[in-house]
């Protein structure tokens, strides 16, 4: 037995030495082996139970990546890695909006994607408010990764302290608006060594083994490779992000909107970034950037048209076309078209003003055509192959250096090419008019100035007429580079006659400066009804409610149940607008949406002719049409006037008591039914004694209280909205905001009453008034 015990001890000792040598040998090889790929390997050799921080340094030009391996149970005595502590802090903060040392901004708690321990995360951590570096570049890289990998959770972490926590919260809110950040941002009061200084990218899966990318000039391909390696470990999860319940909800879920600035989404203008002019036609083209649309208006402020309805990427007529954060515009008088920089879609669009159609200039896009014949051609391999066209639904696997990424400004060099520049003036793309291809890419501010410096200098010379304080405020709000800060305003102003029209993103308005008199005023927009419903309600309201994660949560203003006899029912809504507010202009039919379902058999829109209570036969209708034709022949001028009255949308009645009245006549059959009415009221604060004596913060608080019931918004977000409005130092009583109204009326109709002979039914007319208070 003693010999056997001795042999066992020897075997145990030899086994431990062999295993130890293998582990150390593999560890040495992992450090000395030269890197052959852009991202660190994700094989089993990296998952050993080592206590050491493994570092891989790539050659110059590539990111420095560090990977923290999991500590074994025997390493409990050694100090834990700060990066592991950071992951634990993030994991513990997911379930609470605020905690002892953290605050979430731009966070959607209806999205359960972040409420899980398993998943792939990409975090941008550091001092996000550091003015010494160009943060736009960091965010653009993170946006590219976000567009490419929709199944990954993205977030930002800013490290602050108790002394500046309030100021940092407001500054981060401004940053979210300016950079259009759709991922949540975590404000942390805890400092983590070697992480809270410079901005770094941290990639991890299931809150384990983080990859840390340190260098500022990060090669995005390295992060792409790392993400692909992590996502391929769970193929079902990567496939699920492309599955949608049905076709009409696909676009709504594909474009992710920011969750912080819900208040700003209900303002008439939300980050008016750029503007251009048609001096001959006396028209202005305003990029309502974060509303994803172009507003066409006259110098007087009258809105005449609008391009775009919802964030996305789709050609078509102005009402259905989709863009994603349009910025610079250029009007071509010869073609009567408007060239638009579709920034977040990395595209150039062209709007034909005459035909009211939006199309894509770059990249060349072909749309998939459905049908049996297309399917047969595809299966036979007879589909058209064209290298100059790309499919709008496909995403490039690699990010080409020549690709058009986040363009912002646009100029016309000659009749053959367009000059497109990004926001930081670090890249210039020269695009050919005819082919729609990129001819040349120029990098560097100095080289860009050599090519288009004369055009830029001529336009910027107009800035001499503008007030210096306004220039300083706008430059601070837009500028992201130091070489020539005024160049960042290149697309923010234009000339129209004797006036200089300029956007003011700090105050969400458009200013007009007369060059002769020097008078400066804010443009007051009118005919706002042409914008129709809020931009985010681009699909029928019922479908929004049926979506698990709808475009926006539409607040239910009023519900009521009625029990009436079947027949014709005249329903009138008496709407009382919020106190201390007034309508910008009378509400029009274009701002009202109605839907009936259930036993409602017919719906007559407001403003139509009153129909008789009794049913009429086909022959009687034929005679009525003959009478109308005879009247038209006898008096054509009266007929034309009557026709013009029918074509123009009728304004909704409004009495002296200030209430708005919307008529909704319907016809019902026995059974249950429902009438849904949705309207967009364009309001502003009334000029009375109460608002005259109110402070800037009190006025901002009033606007927030009016808009707050529309969404489920926390007090913290309301305070941030108030701080940003108060900080803008503008006349808050001139701000136009949208108050959505959503009314649902449920009808329960019994059977028709019988006549005395017990065979015929009695047709009934009913009328009811419904009082709605917003």
TrEMBL record:
<dbReference type="GO" id="GO:0000209">
    <property type="term" value="P:protein polyubiquitination"/>
</dbReference>
<dbReference type="InterPro" id="IPR011042">
    <property type="entry name" value="6-blade_b-propeller_TolB-like"/>
</dbReference>
<dbReference type="GO" id="GO:0043161">
    <property type="term" value="P:proteasome-mediated ubiquitin-dependent protein catabolic process"/>
</dbReference>
<dbReference type="GO" id="GO:0061630">
    <property type="term" value="F:ubiquitin protein ligase activity"/>
</dbReference>
<feature type="compositionally biased region" description="Acidic residues">
    <location>
        <begin position="638"/>
        <end position="648"/>
    </location>
</feature>
<protein>
    <submittedName>
        <fullName>NHL domain-containing protein</fullName>
    </submittedName>
</protein>
<feature type="region of interest" description="Disordered">
    <location>
        <begin position="636"/>
        <end position="665"/>
    </location>
</feature>
């Amino acid at each position: 037995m003693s010999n056997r015990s001795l042999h066992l001890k020897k075997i145990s000792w030899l086994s431990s030495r062999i295993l130890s040598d293998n582990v150390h040998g593999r560890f040495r090889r992992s450090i000395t082996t030269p890197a052959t790929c852009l991202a660190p390997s994700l094989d089993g050799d990296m998952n050993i139970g080592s206590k050491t921080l493994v570092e891989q340094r790539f050659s110059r030009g590539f990111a420095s990546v560090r990977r923290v391996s999991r500590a074994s149970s025997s390493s409990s005595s050694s100090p834990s890695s700060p990066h592991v502590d950071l992951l634990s802090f993030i994991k513990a903060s997911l379930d609470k909006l605020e905690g002892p040392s953290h605050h979430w901004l731009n966070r959607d708690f209806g999205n359960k994607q972040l409420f899980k321990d398993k998943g792939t995360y990409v975090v941008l951590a550091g001092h996000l408010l550091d003015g010494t570096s160009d943060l736009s570049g960091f965010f653009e890289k993170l946006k590219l990764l976000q567009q490419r990998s929709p199944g990954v959770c993205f977030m930002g972490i800013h490290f602050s302290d108790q002394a500046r926590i309030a100021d940092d919260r407001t500054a981060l809110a401004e940053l979210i608006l300016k950079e259009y950040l759709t991922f949540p941002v975590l404000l942390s009061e805890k400092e983590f060594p070697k992480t809270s200084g410079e901005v770094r990218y941290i990639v991890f899966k299931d809150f384990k083994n983080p990859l840390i990318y340190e260098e500022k000039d990060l090669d995005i391909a390295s992060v792409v490779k790392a993400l692909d390696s992590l996502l391929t470990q769970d193929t079902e999860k990567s496939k699920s992000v492309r599955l949608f319940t049905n076709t009409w909800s696909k676009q709504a879920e594909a474009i992710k909107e920011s969750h912080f600035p819900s208040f700003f989404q209900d303002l008439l203008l939300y980050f008016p970034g750029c503007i251009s002019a048609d001096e001959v036609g006396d028209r202005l083209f305003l990029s309502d950037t974060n509303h994803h649309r172009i507003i066409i208006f006259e110098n007087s402020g009258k809105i005449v048209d609008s391009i775009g309805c919802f964030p996305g990427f789709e050609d078509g007529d102005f009402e259905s076309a989709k863009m994603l954060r349009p910025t610079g515009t250029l009007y071509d008088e010869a073609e009567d078209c408007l060239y638009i920089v579709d920034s977040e879609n990395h595209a150039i669009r062209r709007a034909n003003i005459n035909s009211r159609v939006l199309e894509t200039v770059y990249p060349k896009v072909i749309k998939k055509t459905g049908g049996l014949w297309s399917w047969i051609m595809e299966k036979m391999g007879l589909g058209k192959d064209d290298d100059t066209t790309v499919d709008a639904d496909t995403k490039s696997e690699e990010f080409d250096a020549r690709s058009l990424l986040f363009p912002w400004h646009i100029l016309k060099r000659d009749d053959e090419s367009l000059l497109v520049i990004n926001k930081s003036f670090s890249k210039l793309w020269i695009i050919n008019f005819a082919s729609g291809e990129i001819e040349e890419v120029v990098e560097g501010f100095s080289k860009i100035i050599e090519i288009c410096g004369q055009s830029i200098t001529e336009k910027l010379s107009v800035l001499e007429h503008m007030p210096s304080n306004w220039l300083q405020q706008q430059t601070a709000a837009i500028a992201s580079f130091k070489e020539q800060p005024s160049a960042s305003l290149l697309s923010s102003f234009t000339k129209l006659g004797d006036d200089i029209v300029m956007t003011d993103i700090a105050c969400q308005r458009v200013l007009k400066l007369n060059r002769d008199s020097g008078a400066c005023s804010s443009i007051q927009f009118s005919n706002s009804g042409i914008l129709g419903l809020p931009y985010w309600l681009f699909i029928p309201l019922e479908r929004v409610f049926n979506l698990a994660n709808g475009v926006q949560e539409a607040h239910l203003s009023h519900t009521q149940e009625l029990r009436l006899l079947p027949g014709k029912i005249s329903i009138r809504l008496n709407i009382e607008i919020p106190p201390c507010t007034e309508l910008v202009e009378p509400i029009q039919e274009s701002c009202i949406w109605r839907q009936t379902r259930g036993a409602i058999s017919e719906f007559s829109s407001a403003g139509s002719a009153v129909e008789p209570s009794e049913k009429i036969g086909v022959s009687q209708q034929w005679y009525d049409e003959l009478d109308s034709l005879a009247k038209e022949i006898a008096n054509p001028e009266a007929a034309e006037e009557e026709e013009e009255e029918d074509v123009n949308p009728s304004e909704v009645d409004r009495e002296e008591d200030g209430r708005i009245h919307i008529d909704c006549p319907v016809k019902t059959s026995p059974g249950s039914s429902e009438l849904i009415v949705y309207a967009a009221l364009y309001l502003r604060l009334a000029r009375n004694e109460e608002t005259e004596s109110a402070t800037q913060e009190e006025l901002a608080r009033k606007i927030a209280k009016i808009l707050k019931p529309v969404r489920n918004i926390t007090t913290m977000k309301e305070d941030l909205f108030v701080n940003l409005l108060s900080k803008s130092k503008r006349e808050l009583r001139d701000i136009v905001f949208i108050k959505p109204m959503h009314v649902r009326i449920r009808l329960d109709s019994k059977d028709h009453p019988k006549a005395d002979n017990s065979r015929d039914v009695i047709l009934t007319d009913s009328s009811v008034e419904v009082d709605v208070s917003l």
